């Protein structure tokens, strides 16, 4: 029985922590009971986990949702009914010792549960993943487990014991040595699996490589994609002696897949080549059913992963996850760090220095973009990605508009014009999925330094679009002459105004970007010779003190517009000189074609 002094002490502690919750998350605690509890002093940063929360709070009812806030010391748990939440509050507040150093947690009621972390899906499988439950009998399981006599010849990884048959998977090179097969082939006790598989689901698959993994409770495996060039499609994994949750991740999607004991998981296509998979190291798993969350105690688990070694290079449709593609295109790919540094020096820093002068030169909106913006109905939401000085904002009073840019100087111009703006990179737009009716990106994507980053920007814009939404993208054109007609860019230099004359600079200066990368410096108002160039911007200050800044640009052929292909798809085609692809984004899938 608590004394009045103890009750008062808990109340003071909770009141103080409620301010911390508000400051860290923006969520307001309330005095009246609700279905949602804030754990005010325990979260990810001090070691609290989803399974610990579920294991304790499920004692008082069906847990509907758990939310752990990245980088914060608080978390939230939601019940299906008010009575359960009230009981948990009364029994656990100031008494349940699951906070840091085994100290008690302090609870408060909140009205709404905000999603601070990536949304987990429990009832969806990645495309290409099939889970065949009860694929083998208990007797078959016993037969296979008898093969698992791990001795000194077996490998020992940080998180598990491993044994290879047919070929050894070498973790130092993340591949197999295809010229050195092992003497020990896949045991004949496994042969019945292929007969059974041919009779049921997947025909014609006979592996020549097997890895047996032995997991003790609490062990797992880091997220990874099996090396593309090492194995053919598909890859199959048989779970023995214990069930487990395997997490699949791609972009911002996170699917929690339950692999029951004696089930066979078949990864092919997108699930095999484009999604990472891994097992979180813990002693019990959190499982979500129709009635809420529950936990499953892990036992010692043995997995038989069957593969067929690939002879030759991978030819999959997922080049940015493919080691064969990277190896064959080393001379075309700019490393990610180099690309990011290049953009910082020759894009972000440049625009920060020239912001006011740049804004002074950007007044009149392009007619096609203006027509696009003005074509949306009352209440539509438009996002200008890379809005600059806001030249395309404020032209349609019937819609709600937001603009984002990396340049604080240009955003200050927008702020002074009373536009709704925020600071963000086009590679990571901090908006929810499927909220915008329209996006525009005018003269932005050509500043990104490699193919993967350009595709990332397209994916981000497609992600924020609603189904049926539209996005207009303009990129600079390399060819400044069409049908013998010169562009306005060329004509701004008087000596280029004659129809037969377009000057091409033959002795361009080159700037060294990294050890293996040099970029030419373009001569303004002349035809372009290269796909990737540095374009000078001469900052007008005083005649005696003129400064020149070099902006990095990758040229493209034409303007494009993302339009619905079907009710749930958008499409865009971009031609960046040598870089050509068709990008398709559905609500649940993004892929190259």
TrEMBL record:
GO terms for cellular component: cytoplasm. Its EC number is 2.1.1.229. The keyword Nucleus applies. One of its GO terms (molecular function) is RNA binding. Residues 206-310 form the Fe2OG dioxygenase domain. Keywords: Cytoplasm, Iron, Metal-binding, Methyltransferase, Multifunctional enzyme, Nucleus, RNA-binding, S-adenosyl-L-methionine, Transferase, Zinc. The keyword rRNA-binding does not apply. GO terms for biological process: methylation; tRNA modification. Residues 35-112 form the RRM domain. SUPFAM superfamilies: Clavaminate synthase-like, RNA-binding domain, RBD, S-adenosyl-L-methionine-dependent methyltransferases. It comes from the Eukaryota. It catalyses: 5-(carboxymethyl)uridine(34) in tRNA + S-adenosyl-L-methionine = 5-(2-methoxy-2-oxoethyl)uridine(34) in tRNA + S-adenosyl-L-homocysteine. Its cofactor is Fe(2+). It is found in: Cytoplasm; Nucleus. Pfam families: 2OG-FeII_Oxy_2 (PF13532), Methyltransf_11 (PF08241), RRM_1 (PF00076). Catalyzes the methylation of 5-carboxymethyl uridine to 5-methylcarboxymethyl uridine at the wobble position of the anticodon loop in tRNA via its methyltransferase domain. Catalyzes the last step in the formation of 5-methylcarboxymethyl uridine at the wobble position of the anticodon loop in target tRNA. Has a preference for tRNA(Arg) and tRNA(Glu), and does not bind tRNA(Lys). Belongs to the alkB family. This is tRNA (carboxymethyluridine(34)-5-O)-methyltransferase. It comes from Brassicogethes aeneus. The lineage of its organism: Eukaryota, Metazoa, Ecdysozoa, Arthropoda, Hexapoda.
């Amino acid at each position: 029985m608590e004394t009045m002094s103890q009750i008062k002490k808990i109340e003071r502690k909770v009141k103080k922590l409620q301010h911390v919750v508000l400051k860290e998350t923006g969520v307001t605690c309330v005095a009246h009971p609700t279905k949602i509890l804030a754990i005010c002093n325990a979260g990810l940063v001090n070691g609290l986990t989803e399974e610990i929360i579920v294991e304790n709070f499920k004692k008082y009812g069906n847990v509907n949702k758990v939310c752990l806030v990245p980088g914060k010391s608080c978390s939230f748990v939601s019940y299906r009914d008010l009575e359960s939440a009230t009981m948990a509050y009364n029994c656990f507040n100031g008494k349940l010792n699951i906070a840091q150093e085994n100290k008690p947690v302090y609870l408060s009621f909140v009205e709404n549960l905000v999603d601070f972390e990536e949304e987990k899906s429990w009832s969806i499988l990645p495309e290409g993943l099939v889970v065949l439950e009860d694929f083998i009998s208990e007797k078959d399981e016993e037969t296979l487990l008898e093969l698992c006599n791990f001795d000194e010849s077996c490998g020992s990884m940080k998180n598990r014991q491993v044994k290879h048959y047919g070929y050894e998977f070498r973790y130092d090179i993340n591949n197999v040595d295809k010229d050195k097969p092992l003497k020990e082939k896949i045991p004949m006790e496994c042969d019945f699996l292929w007969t059974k598989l041919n009779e049921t689901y997947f025909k014609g698959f006979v592996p020549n490589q097997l890895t047996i993994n032995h997991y003790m409770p609490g062990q797992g495996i880091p997220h990874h994609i099996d090396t593309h060039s090492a194995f053919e499609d598909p890859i199959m994994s048989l779970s023995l002696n214990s069930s487990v949750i395997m997490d699949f991740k791609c972009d911002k999607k996170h699917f929690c897949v339950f692999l029951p004991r004696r089930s066979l998981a078949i990864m092919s296509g997108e699930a095999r080549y484009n999604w990472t998979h891994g097992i979180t190291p813990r002693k019990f798993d959190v499982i979500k059913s129709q009635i809420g969350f529950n936990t499953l105690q892990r036992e010692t688990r043995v997995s038989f992963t069957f593969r067929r070694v690939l002879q030759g290079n991978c030819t999959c449709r997922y080049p940015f996850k493919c080691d064969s593609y990277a190896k064959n295109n080393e001379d075309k790919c700019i490393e990610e760090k180099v690309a990011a540094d290049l953009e910082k020096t020759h894009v972000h820093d440049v625009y920060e220095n020239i912001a006011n002068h740049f804004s002074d030169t950007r007044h009149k909106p392009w007619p096609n973009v203006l027509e696009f913006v003005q074509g949306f109905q009352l209440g539509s939401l438009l996002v200008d990605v890379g809005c600059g000085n806001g030249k395309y904002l404020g032209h349609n009073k019937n819609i709600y508009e937001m603009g984002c840019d990396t340049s604080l100087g240009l955003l200050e111009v927008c702020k002074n014009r009373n536009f709704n703006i925020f600071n963000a990179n086009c590679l990571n737009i901090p908006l929810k999925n499927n909220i915008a009716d329209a996006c525009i990106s005018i003269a932005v994507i050509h500043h990104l330094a490699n193919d993967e980053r350009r595709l990332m920007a397209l994916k981000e814009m497609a992600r924020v679009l609603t189904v049926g939404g539209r996005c207009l993208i303009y990129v600079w054109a390399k060819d400044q002459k069409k049908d013998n007609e010169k562009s306005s860019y060329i004509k701004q230099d008087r000596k280029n105004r004659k129809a037969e004359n377009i000057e091409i600079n033959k002795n361009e200066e080159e700037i060294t970007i990294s050890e293996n990368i040099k970029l030419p410096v373009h001569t303004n108002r002349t035809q372009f010779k290269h796909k990737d160039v540095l374009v000078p911007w001469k900052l007008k200050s005083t005649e005696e003190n003129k400064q020149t800044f070099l902006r990095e640009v990758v040229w493209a052929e034409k303007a494009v517009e993302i339009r619905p292909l079907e009710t749930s798809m958008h499409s865009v085609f971009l031609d960046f000189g040598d870089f050509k692809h068709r990008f398709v984004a559905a609500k649940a899938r993004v892929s190259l074609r």
